C-alpha cells in the first residue's frame, strides 16, 4: 500500500511522521492552525469544514433568529 500524501504540502507522509485527523493525513510539522499557524497535536485541534484550527480560532456557528420564532412574529404583526 502506498503511503498517503500530506493534505498541506502534498508530499509523502511516512508512518513515523503521520498525524491523521479529520480523515486526512498530515506531517507533524504541517499540522498547524489555519489562522495563526501554531503547531497542533491531536489533543488541541478542532476540524471545521475540512480545515484545522486551534481552540481560540475555531469558528463558532452563530444561530440566527428564525422567521418562525415568536418574537419575530410579534414584531412583524405590529
What does this structure look like?
The chain has 78 residues and is of the alpha+beta class. It has 1 helix and 4 strands. The protein has one helix at 70-77, and strands spanning 18-21, 24-27, 46-48, 51-53. The strands form 2 sheets. It has a two-stranded antiparallel sheet. A two-stranded antiparallel ribbon has the order 3-4. A hairpin with a 2-residue loop joins strand 3 and strand 4 (51-53). The longest helix has 8 residues, at 70-77. The mean pLDDT is 87.
Layout of helices and strands, plus pairs?
Layout (H helix, E strand, L loop, with lengths): L17 E4 L2 E4 L18 E3 L2 E3 L16 H8 L1
Antiparallel strand pairs: 1-2, 3-4
Measured by DSSP, the beta-strand proportion falls in 15-25%
| Structural class estimated from helices and strands | alpha+beta
Low-confidence stretches: none
Q: What shape does the CA trace take? A: elongated
Number of E strands? 4
The profile of the biggest β sheet is:
2 strands, antiparallel
Mean pLDDT: 87
Number of helices, counting only DSSP H or I runs of 4 residues or more? 1
- What is the CA-CA span between the terminal residues? 67 Å
The oligomerization state is: single chain
Helical residue percent band: 10-25%
Strand line-up across the major sheet: 1-2
Order of helices and strands: EEEEH
What Rg, in angstroms, do the CA atoms define? 20 Å
